[in-house]
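Hi all, long-time lurker, first post. I run a small reading group and we've been trying to get comfortable going from sequence to structure in the token notation. Rather than ask abstract questions, I figured I'd post a concrete chain and ask someone more experienced to write out its structure so we can walk through it together at our next meeting. Sequence below, copied exactly:
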Amino acid sequence: MYDILIVGASTTGCWFAEKMASQGFRVLVVEKDEPVNVSRAYDVFHMSRPEMEQFGLIIPEPENPIRAFSFADSPMRSPYGNYPKASSGGPETIGLHKHEYIMLMAQRAIKAGAEIIYGASFTDLIFDKNGKVAGGKYKTADGEKEVRAKLVADCSGIPSAARTKLPDTSVVDNHKLTEKDILYVVLYYVEYLDKTIDPRTLDGFFLQYKSWSAPSGNPNGAILGIGAFYGYDVAQEVFNSQFLKNVAFPEYKIEKIEKGMTPYHRSVYSFVDDGFIAMGDAAFLTKPTCGEGCTSSLVQGEIAVDVISKLLKEGKELSRDNMWSINKRYMQTQGKDFDSMRPLLMGIISPGCDEAEHLFANDIIFSQKILGNVDTGFELNTKDIAQIIKGVVSGIAKKDLSPATIGKIGKGLINSMKIGAHYDAYPDSPYEFYKWKSKADKLWKQIGYVADTTDPEILKKTGR
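-- Answer (accepted) --
Happy to help. Here is the structure in token form:
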């Protein structure tokens, strides 16, 4: 009998296993891949130093081969690559070789006392006579096995191997993600042919295309990344027919191409049920600005460790009622911030390239204050709002902006405020949950999908 069965041994699974095992709890992790294949979709991933420090993650020294590079102050750029809005004194971002780093995290979990079984595919949940989760089944080369546990934690990523096995009566969403809920990411590792070019002067994030230029570890190179809904072919079409057409990059050769997926969907309404918790990508915990989920998922993880460890130490059941505070605490903090940002993003990516360029150039909405502090937080005062209104009115009068575009931005802002207010009213107990959920469903149905902002011409070209 284990205290916790964790499904998935990537970032969230290994981190949660270490935190719980280090307190003396019996923890078993099952991972479908063999060690050599774990977290191989991408070579390099990024995390900020403050977040790594916050969650107790190892920060390899510069000479450590696991560490690829570090950088800071990568700006937001306009659709034509101009008017960078860089954060002032932004945090250091560290690039790490993902497979090697995840295996390092696994070693720490094992050292803390957790058990990890590789090549073990989760197949189903086990329920007790009262319908509560009581463990799980997994399959190895030796056949299917069962394990009993007080809690099953789904850290399996997009497949959500355990969450999707929950019954429809569960308060935890059990649906599978569709192509409108997933950001398909293509990474081009490039090397610039002109060795006199400093690639770091080209770094930046291009919101309109969901694209970016970032360090790759090659001093003469970069990662040119692109994300899109519906499929990798859509991402590549946006990259070639829009991004490279409108943003001038020096001539380069492609060293390699990587492809991967990240969930892009509002978080599940409830993470917990009797004997169960969804975490990380399995609960859709990713940053809406960029789709990164490694450290953002650990915000919920810290809350879960606090609540669950106390319950176990006090000998209390890991029930839905007892763990409900995990939902409440998360939804009223990062959950509200992340999910209310999605409708706002739908509004601010709606302008065409020329209109967005005008907004960037005149510091209207796409301003230094807003975009330069998107990851650290900001507050708009009355003077700021008055300046935005003045700029919008002037842009419409000069026909640089269309009323329709401003209407979409305004709608995004209003919907953002509605989601924020509704998440502030997240229920104190499961007994008020369904009423809250019903209103949330109506709001999200009205808002729609960020995928709905995809260029129709691109969808037509790719046969959608």
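A couple of things your group might point at:
The chain has twelve helices and 17 strands.
The CA atoms of residues 382 and 388 lie 10 Å apart.
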